[in-house]
Amino acid sequence: MPEPKSGEVLIKVVSSPINPSDLAYLSGFYSSTRKLPATPGFEGSGLVIRSGGGFFAGRLVGKRVAFSASGQSGAWAEYCVASATEVVVITDQISYETASCSLVNPLTVMAMCKVAA
User: Deepest of 44, 50, 65, 94, by most Cβ within 10 A of its Cβ?
Assistant: First the structure.
């Protein structure tokens, strides 16, 4: 199980979509600091179970969140480390499945619209 550092949280992943960016990354066509071999998945949702310490990270333990997995730890894993600044608390009214598509997918749609225009 990965260990969060200061400013990071450990998330028990509940949902993580397969995005075009994930498929491009796996095909070698996506620019990322994450080097293979690595666990894929750039966004997801779940429950914060541990904090590595720090102002923001310490306040997220026990919260349901959507997150961006920009480090070496991918969102397709059972547990993922994410920066506390790349985590958004979600309410009980938002499903994990909906929340897991709330960060990367909207930006992908905006980029596709710009290319198509």
Answer: 44
